[in-house]
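Sequence only, no structure available. Ideas?
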Amino acid sequence: MLPQSDPAISGIGQFRLTARRRQIRLRALVYQLLLATALCIGGWYLVSTAAQNLLDLGVAAGFGFLSREAGFAIGETTLLSYSAADTYLTAIAVGFLNTLRVAMLAIVFSTVIGGSIGLARLSTNWLLAKTAGVYVELLRNVPLIVQLFFWYALITESLPAPGDALRPLPGFFLSNRGLVFPAFKLASAEPWLVVILCAAGVTAFIWLWHRGSNPSAGRYADRLFAMAALAFALGTVFLLPGAKTSVRVDYPTLTGFDFVGGASLSPEFSALLLGLALYTAAFIAEIVRAGVLSVDRGQFDAAYSLGLTQRQVTRFIVLPQALRVITPPVTSQYLNCTKNSSLAVAIGYPDLVSVANTTINQTGQAIEGVAIIMIVYLTISLVISAFMNWYNRHVALRGTTP
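Reply:
I predicted one. Tokens follow.
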């Protein structure tokens, strides 16, 4: 028979183990408090030293300069109207919107291009696969700043002057001043408000009615009804009396040495968009290729045995499974694309960094200006991360409990 353990000895051992754990936790808490105290002291020292240095230079610390008149022009704006008489806050807001516009468009274009190139690399067509491989190896191994200079020089140096502009489509003019094209002009904003409200209301009503009357209907039927409702609302509003007079198409015309009217894409914006989209697409292409290759070969064989075409296999079998692998690394590329947009200052595009640099040079508020840049980029990155994490959870595999 095995000797029985003494309950008193077991109790003493348990007590010693509990005391040991408490000592470890207390020591860890003390170390954390000491580290937090050291960080607070270091932060207080840096802030107080910077404030004293600014005071010695006659520069007032704080963000009060944002309410002062900026006094400089911005060549390109998005949504907001701006003039030199506006405040620094308005100027920074314009720079933020410019950054947001080019970053979001670059993300969309890089996703489409990268996905197409990634699938092309897996094609059985030798020429198509090798061409896609050359694109990936070339674009991702050349620094982005060099590519931006290349695209900017290509647009400004190789394209003709406005007087000899290329006309790829009626009303479209391509020159070293950028791309100019027709645009809708509104006499007032009220018709658009009616359009938005009517379209949203009718679309929501029909969508909810359709879901309630036929819960088993697929998402494609929902989208069809939503698009039909939106088209109906737009058509109805624009046929109302007076709606036609408030919306017109403004065509660009050559006046002197430049075009007047319509809308335009500047060389700086075009070069930045091309550089960001094509550069990021090269990395996304490799991610898509790896994601598709991660799908087990038996999935392909089973789908082909059911009589599905290659397009159906890719769309309904392979891509839904590959997305679970593709989404996390693609999120990192979206964040890199957004942060890489700060290189716009190298080619003269008025993004957030460019406008903030001008503000810093005029006001001397370097710490505040850099803090604004950091906060804005951090906010954009966190929003993108939150959205992509939500999407990743949406497409992730969900286990079932027995």
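The beta strands are 173-175, 178-181, 183-186, 247-250, 253-255, 258-260, 263-265.
Hope that gets you unstuck.
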